[in-house]
């Protein structure tokens, strides 16, 4: 851990010394609370069940944290270094990936479910807690203190509803709890 901190400090020093005086550089680093919003760890197997009762496993094949440099169009001297974390769950069938990423600057978790062409964005605040969002033309985000999914009860569940048809239910203890489309359950965590 000390080695990582030292490398990060050296990286910041090199980057800061290489900037021109007129450049504006911003750093957005993930906090521990933000990193913990994605509960999956490398090698973990997550068991899901689909709408027809078939179970399938998804294995965490990637869990990386990295820095991304973001340049802003029209502002050549303004850019940011954004700390990101990316986790990939690969199903036992090769065509099914779930890509989950978190970005310190945007304060959101992006969840892409490849075989269903679904993308969700779960917004959170500076304390790493999910927030409610009033619905607009694209999505709304709702918090549930307690929610029963199947036969299980979950706490502190965030729901994002996209286009008033597709929903994801997620919490920071288990991750993805359920995904629905037009009221039909596509898959649910099987625990």
Describe what is shown at a glance.
By secondary structure, the protein is mostly beta strands. The chain is built from 2 helices and 12 strands. Strands 1, 2, 3, 4, 5, 6, 7, 8, 9, 10, 11 and 12 form a 12-stranded mixed beta sheet that branches.
Explain the overall architecture.
This protein is mainly beta and 191 residues long. The chain is 11% helix and 55% strand. The protein has one domain. A hairpin with a 2-residue loop joins strand 8 and strand 9 (152-162). Mean pLDDT is 85; it is low at 5-11.
Produce the secondary structure layout:
Elements: H1 2-18, E1 24-28, H2 32-35, E2 45-50, E3 55-72, E4 75-91, E5 97-103, E6 108-113, E7 118-123, E8 139-149, E9 152-162, E10 166-171, E11 175-181, E12 184-189
Parallel strand pairs: 1-4
Antiparallel strand pairs: 2-3, 2-12, 3-4, 4-5, 5-6, 6-7, 8-9, 9-10, 10-11, 11-12
**What percent strand?**
over 45%
Helical fraction equals 10-25%
Cα(first) to Cα(last) distance is 33 Å
Estimate nothing, just give the exact number of structural domains. Answer: 1
- Structural class, please? mainly beta
- Overall form: globular
The chain-level mean pLDDT equals: 85
Weakly predicted, low-confidence segments: 5-11
Largest sheet: 12 strands, mixed
Total beta-strand segments:
12
Number of helices in the DSSP assignment:
2
Helix/strand order, N-terminal first: HEHEEEEEEEEEEE
- In terms of quaternary structure, the protein is single chain
What's the Cα radius of gyration?
19 Å
